Amino acid sequence: MFNEYFTEEISIMPNFLKTKYIGAIRGLIKTAEFEKEKSQIEAIFAKGNGSETSLKEITASHNNLIIEAHKNIESSKSLKYSALYELDDDRTSEEIINLITSNNSFLDSVNTLNTPIQNLKATKLKDVIKFTFLLDGIRINDNVPIAIKTTYSVIVKFWEFGNSKKKFLEIDADNVATYFRLDKSNFFEQMITTIEEYLQSKFSLTLIPIDLFQTLEKIKEKAKKGELEDLPIASAQKMVLSSGSQAILDSNDAETIILPILGELRKLIEDNEELFSEALDVKILLEGFIQDTETMSDLPWVTFTWDNKIKSKKIQVKFVLSEYPYTLLNYYTHNKGRSGMNDVVESLLKEYCNNQDDGGEET
Predict the structure, then answer these.
(1) Distance (Å, rounded) from C-alpha 258 to C-alpha 265?
(2) I need a labelling partner for 91 at 20 to 30 A (CA). Which of 50, 67, 161, 183 fits?
């Protein structure tokens, strides 16, 4: 069943990904596990029939090799968008994963959710589940609309923390070209919500969306107190005042960030402490204005930066605080693949648990 699915995927796979699979296969045949297949694979490559034909031939005749290459590539791949949930379920993560990926890892099509998707399949890749389905799109070529299809992936990862005894679930949506987004500005949120609803309706999982606003505010407080340790630093933020005015601050060095408009006023007070101590009534008025404006203002998004000291390791994540019950994570500066995403999510969930243990509550 996997061979049939993967052969179809090869036909519409972008060239850069085909090249990546060829590279992964070349690497695997150098290992002890697949050294017996080395000569046969090299013979396939020697035919010079192109990456698509070669991959299809390897898929047909060397099933274990192509599955291992697939697992390695997909499990280490970085995706663009994420949402986090608390998982209220007595079953272990392994039990849930096996349940979802049983029956040769192929599931029925989903027609009852907000976003209809075609040919939904679930595959276990190490410690994650990869949901794959087809998307329809229209590309304009010489003013002529052409119907096209592509495979699209959503990854589900389970998290457990021994100290807190809490379980979590992460849903990650892949990026895709604009002509597959169904003309919807909230396409990625809908992809996440689609899988969320499917897991709840099909497998009776209880998923509680996590709003990270309070967690992010706690991280900011720790930054001010010098208690960051390995936590990220806020590096950009947008603010919409009750009057409708908007301000965005982006700190390139991510050393510190001052809240747009209000942060500048705070810094003004701090830098002129002696002057304001002689005019306490003015200081009180300004501090009252800052507090009232913060309470009445909207913060649509904020960006945090991990590992800013080393450019190659830097990860920037934009947290979108939208009308959805969860906070959307948008990874937009990121070179560390799946391991980088794991670092981000682990640090956020640990801080979230600390906030819960301290009596805090996400709202």
Answers:
(1) 9
(2) 67
* Single-letter residue type at 258: I
* Phi-psi domain of 143 (left: phi exceeds 0; alpha: psi -120 through 50; beta: other): left
Q: What is the DSSP letter of 112?
A: S
Q: What is the residue-averaged pLDDT of the chain?
A: 79
Residues 281 and 293: their CA atoms lie apart, in Å, by: 18
Q: Which sign, positive or negative, has the C-alpha torsion 42, 48, 49, 52?
A: positive
Cα angle at 4 between 116 and 56, to 5 degrees? 120
Q: Quick one: tokens of 58?
A: 């390897």
Instruction: Give me the sign of the Cα torsion angle 253, 259, 260, 262.
Output: negative
| H or E segment to which residue 136 belongs | strand 128-141
- Count of helices and strands (H, E) across the chain: 12, 11
Element (H, E) at 318: strand 315-320
Would the CA dihedral through 208, 213, 215, 216 be positive or negative?
positive
C-alpha gyration radius of the chain: 24
Q: Which residues contact 90 (CB under 8 A, 6 or more apart)?
A: none
Assigned CATH topology for domain 81-209? Alpha-D-Glucose-1,6-Bisphosphate; Chain A, domain 4 (3.30.530)
Kindly indicate the confidence band of residue 257, based on its pLDDT and cuts at 50, 70 and 90.
very low
pTM of the model as a whole = 0.73
d(CA 256, CA 250): 10
Average pLDDT estimate for 27-46 = 93
Per the listing, tokens 């608390």 go with 86
Q: Where are the domains of the chain?
A: 2-75, 81-209, 213-357
Give the pair of three-digit tokens for residue 322. Answer: 């939208």
**Distance from C-alpha of 340 to C-alpha of 317, rounded to nearest angstrom:** 11
The structure tokens 């039990």 sit at 95
Q: What contacts 280, CB < 8 A, 6 or more positions away? A: none
195-236: per-residue pLDDT in tens? 999 999 989 999 999 999 889 888 888 877 777 667 787 776
